[in-house]
Amino acid sequence: MSRIIIPIIFAIVSLSSFAQNDVKEDSIILKKIYDTSLLNGKSYSWLDYLSNQIGGRLSGSVNAQLAVEWGEKELKTLGIDKVWLQSVMVPKWTRGVTEFAYIETEPGVTTNVPICALGGSVPTPIGGIKASIIEVKGLEELSALGKEQIEGKLVFYNRPMQADLIETFRAYGGCVDQRYSGAAEAAKYGATGVIVRSMNLRLDDFPHTGAMSYGNLKDADKIPAVAISTNGADLLSSMLKLNPKIKFHINMNCRTWKDVKSYNVIGEIIGSEFPNEYMVVGGHLDSWDLGDGSHDDGAGVVQSMEVLRIFKEIGYKPKRSIRVVLFMNEENGLRGGKKYAEVAKNKGENHVFALESDAGGFTPRGFSFDCDDANFNMIEGWKPLFEPYLVHYFAKGGSGADIGPLKKDGIVLAGLRPDSQRYFDYHHAKNDTFDAVNKRELELGAATMTSLMYLFDKYGVK
Amino acid sequence: MSRIIIPIIFAIVSLSSFAQNDVKEDSIILKKIYDTSLLNGKSYSWLDYLSNQIGGRLSGSVNAQLAVEWGEKELKTLGIDKVWLQSVMVPKWTRGVTEFAYIETEPGVTTNVPICALGGSVPTPIGGIKASIIEVKGLEELSALGKEQIEGKLVFYNRPMQADLIETFRAYGGCVDQRYSGAAEAAKYGATGVIVRSMNLRLDDFPHTGAMSYGNLKDADKIPAVAISTNGADLLSSMLKLNPKIKFHINMNCRTWKDVKSYNVIGEIIGSEFPNEYMVVGGHLDSWDLGDGSHDDGAGVVQSMEVLRIFKEIGYKPKRSIRVVLFMNEENGLRGGKKYAEVAKNKGENHVFALESDAGGFTPRGFSFDCDDANFNMIEGWKPLFEPYLVHYFAKGGSGADIGPLKKDGIVLAGLRPDSQRYFDYHHAKNDTFDAVNKRELELGAATMTSLMYLFDKYGVK
């Protein structure tokens, strides 16, 4: 054995025994974190309150304000170092009197179908609109059809989510342009309104709302936009095949108001060694108005709060400053996320890591990371620590909408990835309610997030 | 480079390019399998029929017979080589008129609590039984208490499932002795009956039934046994703390009849190269009577049928003979599983592989295997093929109750492992119904099973 090899072996052995001690310590702490969440967790009872006592909380609503006050009050019970509200102007849109629609096969012969206004839509005139329908499979088909075929009609976007994609968020990404830009595009060809197939992989009677944009259309050119349930979409499509001349009636009185003042809710534990390095964990406090927003994103809110509560409960004192941020207005403006990043930048705060939970309260499968290779390699080394908790998925990819504006060189952004198979059954619909969330699944998610925060705090960002 | 090394390198290179072609072919076939299940699957509509048109199907019931006839008829539509019924005598136990129970704090002051008879229990005498209660945390506490404290009382087994265990089947395993042996043990100390906390991690109002045994007690010594819902158990425990003298009344008229004839339903595709090597995939056709048995084990039944249907649909001709077996009587006797193994042994059939799905129709996480190291190493080599489908869990462990009797040297036994967090919310209870099964999750399970069957058929068992 040469004189060079011996010291290398010693170095490897000592590194490895150091690493083994670390692994042992980390395993013990992760076990404590999971036990605390599963045996003595607070996430589920928090969600119960947020969902059942407050309910749906669209930006600018009374409920959104109640949620802000609740979040601040609850964070103040945790004994963390600071809790404050960060003001931000948000859009205010109201649904108004319950909207309705029907198919008219001939005058007086009508079939009701479940619809809802898309968020941000203009209303119909009083008395509603009625027009014949042209069905398309997406935005591309519009230009091929041209103004002649579209003018004066309702455009029916009916491209379904692709069921063969295993990750349902990819299937969503492949369809959501119909909802977001469908009205703006159809208006250019003189359409009188749009009907969009709900972003739902299941066949049922729930219409799913969601954000839309008119782009730079003038107010006078804006046309009403509704979502139709998947069953309703299939019915409408079948009836159109039998008789292309059927008409569709929509009645809604939604409205956009002036922006109003709202808040991000922020809590902080000051770091013991590197107080000027900030790590964020968060979800968004606002939700759509149809359900009570339990999966989207009540789950992410209470899981994020639970991260700091668990740290306090197990007596873990982070080296870096850890903030929980309950972002306002993810759904229809992202104003809270933008504001938080803007203030952080103006104050010169060094954000090194941010984690968002905004994909539902289902069994956690892992995380996706928006980061460089050095950090991703470090993360991959942590995989064995998560295996006892059946958390296997660690991949590069997107993180979360609210933390996106924090992106800069050197920061690691992460998104919790729960099982996604059921998510779009509930997303933005009336059935996104507390009973659709399983206590253990929610708690496992909170523990998985806390564990990742712990590891990043301990080892730092590369 | 020595003359020895060069041939080795050639061998490695050619092996590796062979292996790469195999991986490519396997990836393409797995994609076909998943696409077929998700886009053109039959498992969900089969389950709809079995659950909603037939319903709960306890061994010996009319519904069990209807399920046998349905299974045979459906398998015959698949164009496989053989379909037959294998007769087996099964126990017949009936619940009778709906059972009920209440807590009596003082004469005339009563509180109803949700209970159900455990499967196989003797009835109460007409008019029911009423006695005071002694609460224990498990079988161990009984002997410490002794006959003096137990005689004439109802023993209340109240050890809950351990919430900190990530794999809920382990938590079940840690409690189920109370249900299975609780009555036999308590009877030895002169108890008049037993009340067992439901095997459920959630707090709710559903009592969960399940198999129990009186061991070798004489008929005259058998005592009634019921499950109480988790909320009911917590209530009873609280009331006992306030007043240890409260009484509990149980009324039930369940009954055990003579064994009756029933059937395993079997379908087969004859292997093209090794027709005398048998591979089995199955679930159990019987279920408890309270719900409609959608998760336990309607899901496993239709997923197993789907394996053969997918092979036919994609035109895959297995080299080995593949059998789907819909086992009768897993829940309260395992007679179907034992009969199948007995007949196979008597006929000298060489069974090389068996896979069971009996853990619910939730998102598939992987498999556990009862096999030797050589086979397990081969299986581990297949992990990357499953990663695109978010199937990561491959571990040694149990397989399935019905295929257990096939165990012998050289056979590989496997069990599908779906996400288990929600399973015991429904297991053996009234809410195990079709609406609790998600179409995509069920279909992903079927595809995952089909993929494993394909790989074992292609590469054989070591």
Radius of gyration of chain A: 25 Å
Give the overall pLDDT of chain A as a whole number.
Answer: 95
Order of helices and strands of chain A: HHHEEEEEHEHHEEHEEEHEHEEHHEEHH
> Quick one: CATH class of the largest domain in chain A?
Alpha Beta
Multimeric state of these chains?
A: homodimer
| CATH H-level superfamily title of the largest domain in chain A | Zn peptidases
Shape of chain A: elongated
Query: Approximately how much helix is present in the residues of chain A?
Result: 25-40%
How many β strands of chain A by DSSP?
16
CATH topology of the largest domain in chain A: Aminopeptidase
N- and C-termini, Cα separation of chain A: 35 Å
Largest interface: A-B, 27 and 27 residues
Question: Number of helical segments of chain A?
Answer: 13
Low-confidence stretches of chain A: 1-15
The biggest beta sheet of chain A is recorded as: 8 strands, mixed
Widest sheet: strand ordering of chain A: 1-10-12-11-13-16-14-15
How many distinct domains of chain A? 2
CATH architecture of the largest domain in chain A: 3-Layer(aba) Sandwich
